[in-house]
Design brief:
Elements lengths: L2 E8 L1 H33 L10 H39 L3 E5 L2 E4 L2 H37 L3 H14 L6 H40 L10 E4 L4 E6 L2 H15 L2 H4 L3 H29 L3 E4 L1
Antiparallel strand pairs: 1-2, 1-6, 2-3, 4-5, 5-6
Helix pairs in contact: 1-2, 1-8, 2-3, 3-5, 5-6, 6-8
Length: 296
């Protein structure tokens, strides 16, 4: 029997703790793989410019320490605020809905899925736009001030005589700064929302009508109370296969252009990445606590 569940809210602390732990371990794995790659490159003599530089001590220790620490703390920030945004926006936009048959996710309703995720992305883009505008605006103000100085007039005249093009005036620098700030603060979130909505809608559509014929994402929930559920387990192979197939289909441009290697690499990359996340989740859940959600 198919049961439609809506994720009304996500418990903040368990999700953040689990996400940060998983990506901290993935950061460690990435650091080790990068160190092995650099060591092989140096040993094989592909980069003679390294000379006698010891990759293991020069790069190895910093990479193995900084990668997991950076991944852990950056994921804490991203996960914490993303869940806060999700819980805040759900009453206004609705939450992600899943059609479940036992453990199988048989369908992801397109509009709720695309709407909430693209809205979260747009809020992040708005925050990034504010930060970038705050950094860029003083630069344009400084250029506007400098262009009014007497010395700048001679520089502008020499530039015009040499190139035939007029340098921007102070007013033009100021106007450019205002336009750039508006683009970052308003245009960037709109663009992220539109393209995010299209991307997430395509993800759901491809999953619903193509991928589920081959494999389905599987999520094993356990009911704690009336609406509170915990994600007990993520079956690795079917979930990794389903996710990898969706992202591979989204990257069909590679095979359409004849780049079969990129097409295969996309599948392998997302299969391994999803499988690792599922394996780590299943291993860590009994130790640090599973993700908890309010499902209705």
């Amino acid at each position: 029997m198919i049961d439609v569940k809506e994720i009304k809210s996500i418990k903040l602390t368990p999700f953040t703790k689990m996400s940060a732990s998983i990506y901290g371990v993935l950061g460690l794995i990435a650091g080790v793989l990068m160190l092995i790659t650099l060591t092989i490159i140096q040993t094989a003599g592909f980069m003679p410019q390294l000379g006698q530089f010891n990759v293991v001590t020069g790069f190895g220790i910093p990479i193995i320490i900084l990668f997991p620490i950076g991944a852990f703390f950056s994921t804490i920030v991203i996960s914490f605020f993303s869940v806060m945004l999700y819980n805040t926006l759900v009453p206004r936009l609705g939450g992600i809905k899943l059609e479940l048959e036992d453990k199988d996710v048989t369908k992801i309703p397109v509009i709720p899925y695309a709407l909430i995720l693209s809205a979260i992305g747009a809020v992040w883009a708005f925050i990034a736009g504010l930060v970038l505008a705050a950094l860029i605006s003083p630069i344009f103000s400084l250029l506007s001030t400098i262009s009014t100085l007497p010395e700048a007039s001679q520089v502008a005249a020499n530039f015009t005589n040499a190139t035939g093009a007029a340098m921007p005036t102070g007013g033009e620098f100021g106007a450019a700064g205002i336009i750039m700030s508006l683009v970052l603060i308003l245009g960037l979130p709109i663009m992220v929302f539109v393209f995010g909505f299209i991307w997430n809608a395509l993800f759901a559509l491809l999953y619903n009508y193509i991928v589920t014929r081959v494999a389905k994402i599987q999520l094993e929930f356990s009911q704690i109370s009336e609406n509170l559920h915990e994600l007990k387990n993520i079956p690795v192979i079917p979930t990794a296969l389903a996710v990898a197939l969706v992202y591979t289909l989204l990257g069909l441009l590679g095979i359409l252009s004849g780049n079969y290697a990129e097409f295969i690499a996309n599948f392998v990359q997302y299969f391994i990445q999803t499988a690792l996340i599922a394996l780590l989740y299943n291993y860590l859940a009994p130790k640090i606590g599973s993700i908890k959600l309010n499902l209705e």
